[in-house]
Amino acid sequence: MPSRLLPTFAASLADAARPVDLAGRGRLTDALQWYATIPPGLSARFLDEYEVLLERLRENPWQFPAMREPMRRAGFRHFPYGLIYRIHPAEVEIVACFHGRRDPRRWQERQ
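RESULT FIELD:
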């Protein structure tokens, strides 16, 4: 499993213009474990796309659609996942990294 990639990812957040709360990272770990069991390199591509999505959130968190206020969803381009998040004055809080076909009540319980 590419868990060695997570510290690098977390360290890259230190330079963020807008802090990102990683409370929703639990599902990211689950997804990385899954993608590590299938074709080589897929888990690294998933993590790369996650980092790109976080950078887009840092730049402009309002660019993604609202679901139920105050929740918003930023979808991955090449994977069936999305980041469920809310915007606070000083940071973006990630509530969940969520598979698009799962029951939404699972992430809603985390609110």
